[in-house]
Amino acid sequence: METRLARAYEAPEVLRFFQSYIHAHTEGIYSMEFVCPDGIRAAVYRQQIIAALDNGIVVAALRFYIKKNRETASLYQFAIQEPYRGKRLLAQMLGLLEIPHVLAQCKEDSIFNDYYMKTGWTRIKTERNLTTWSLDNTSKSIMTTSPQGTRLQE
Question: Does a structural domain hold residue 41?
């Protein structure tokens, strides 16, 4: 398994992957921006997509944005194929960011709140029907990557 930034030529595959897991009515979608094909392609070109590939096939992907202070990243969306879930793959992928804090939002009544709580995120606030979560991305358990993983500074 290889975990790294998605490359420009992989934009169509990343788009297909997200489209197969994330739809307008998918649990956790609170903005149509997350299902916009142009936004996903642009994120690949801006190097804001981390992909996990198994034998060259995308099995997980996340979209992020690093804030100007370089201390915080926003997790916009992520998806992981069923056979790869429960293996801390999201934590491994976030560890590649080398950013101390990661923020994520989801609807107040979303099942993702349970996920964030169970996986070590801290609830920051709930307002306007959105819950904001924070992850300390410096923890050793978060930073552990597979031998094939590469840091973002390639």
Answer: yes
**SS in 3 state form for 26-90?**
CCCCCCHHHHCHHHHHHHHHCCCEEEEEECCEEEEEEEEEECCCCCEEEEEEEEECHHHCCCCHH
pLDDT tens digits, residue range 44-81?
999 999 999 999 999 999 999 998 877 899 998 899 99
Neighbouring-strand partners of residue 135: 102
For the domain that residue 129 is a member of, what is the CATH number?
A: 3.40.630.30
Indicate whether 153 belongs to any domain.
no
If you search the block for the tokens 């997200």, which residue do you land on?
18
Partner residues linked to 57 by β-bridges: 54
Residues in the chain where the model's pLDDT stays below 50: 140-154
Residue 152 maps to a domain: no
Enclosing domain of residue 27: 2-143
